[in-house]
Amino acid sequence: MSKSITALRQPRAPETHSIVPRRDTAAKEQPETILSERPSHVQTQYGGNDNPGVLQVFPPAWLPYLQLVRLWPPAALLLIFFPHGFGILHAAIRTQASLGDVVRASIVIFGGCFFCSNAAHTWNDLVDARLDAQVERTRRRPIPRGAITPTAALLFGATQVLGAVLLLTCLPFGLWVNGLYATPNIISTSYYPFAKRHTHLPQLVLGFCLAWGVVMGEVAMGVQPLSYSPQTGEVSLDPSVFCLVTGTAVWALIYDTIYAHQDLQADLRVGIKSLAVLLQERSKIVLWLALALMTGLLVQAGRLSGLGIPYYFLAVGGGSASLGLMIWRVNLRDSQNCWWWFSNGFWWTGGAIGMGLLAEYC
């Protein structure tokens, strides 16, 4: 984790990072020794061995767990919450919901996102511990370095799942219906850490995981975006919601591909798959095409929902412009530069889309 997003330094010249021994060697290091070392900049990029001032208010025994769940900077949590927020505001616009209903849904969803984020990152690090131990940026995350045992991480993750389930009961429609709506996200999130072993498209899997939050945001507002036809046996998703979900998934694919470029050289040597590994020097061409697709999907979502100028100006125009700036300026050969744009750029695009929907609601 970084010391603070605001404290991130300006991008530096490209660096080449070496591969370290596998987990069985790295795990022999003592946590106390590692925590006392000053982490390099790659380890502050969600490397799992940073101790910023924000985390120092907590007991020292909590630190490895706070590092495990990427508590600071809160980019990981907010990247999960943003799509849910899009769904809440989209549903509020179409149902003319009261501000009180929007606030209540947002509070419950934010709590659910907190527990889901914790559980997902714990699961991801459990599955990836051996791979993480071979990559410079991630080799000192709590599990590879031995600060948290796999058993302790599994038990901790189970408590976070329980917290998410309890908040799921607070949504409309009851636990079983809410659970059915959450099932696609649960399956894709469980599979995500394995995707990098099977396919060069883990960013697409992650994009779906995050974008499904739009659907859960709609559900939190009492809207059922899925419909079932007994006559045909078909399940369909509301077209406007489908466009918003798909557009959000493409946004996630873009910024996570930039994130993946942080570890490109290490991933090539270790054998980890990603869009960054697949595309390499051609990444920006594909990212520009993805941006065009995202813009078109946001336009179509607005058209199908009958949205007006605030949405098109802020959400479509602002979101596309900020993401275009990110693609144009990021240096994919520089790990720290990729982190800077990832950890800052998501605020601009997610904030623009959210502000466009909020302005339309108001």
From TrEMBL:
Pathway: Secondary metabolite biosynthesis; terpenoid biosynthesis
GO cellular component term, pick one: mitochondrial inner membrane
Localization per Swiss-Prot or TrEMBL: Membrane
Membrane topology: Multi-pass membrane protein
Keyword field contains Transmembrane: yes
A Gene Ontology BP annotation from the UniProt entry: terpenoid biosynthetic process
Any GO molecular function: 4-hydroxybenzoate polyprenyltransferase activity
Residue spans of biased composition, Basic and acidic residues class: 21-31
Cofactor section: Mg(2+)
Family the UniProt entry places it in: Belongs to the UbiA prenyltransferase family.
Protein name: Prenyltransferase
Lineage: Eukaryota, Fungi, Dikarya, Ascomycota, Pezizomycotina
